[in-house]
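Sequence in, structure out.
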Amino acid sequence: MDTLSTIERSERMARIHGRDTKPEMVVRRLLHGMGYRYRLHRGDLPGKPDIAFGKRKKAIFIHGCFWHRHDDPTCRLARLPKSRLEFWEPKLSANAKRDTLNQEALKRLGWNVLVVWECELRQSEQLENKLRQFVGE
């Protein structure tokens, strides 16, 4: 059972947007601080990667663990809701499938793809190393 009323839940869900999210801003600040410059949400690429390095042919997607079905069993943010499973299960599965198809399409175009999960933002040192290794390759 949901702890919020239908109206409260609707208001919360309406505040969620697809770009310039808090996790995305954290990664962008890290990359900028490391001296990397990038393009945002390139519409000419499959899936409109959150961050793209055109000359390097590298794309980064910053995924929310809940919305994109992080399959790490230790991730507490990826839990399914307890109510309305008939709605959430197909929606979130479709998101994950679309993500996979977009990543495969980018790879076929010769791009390297990195997915940064929301739960990884808590370990900033590890995340910085991961980003530096990916972009610097």
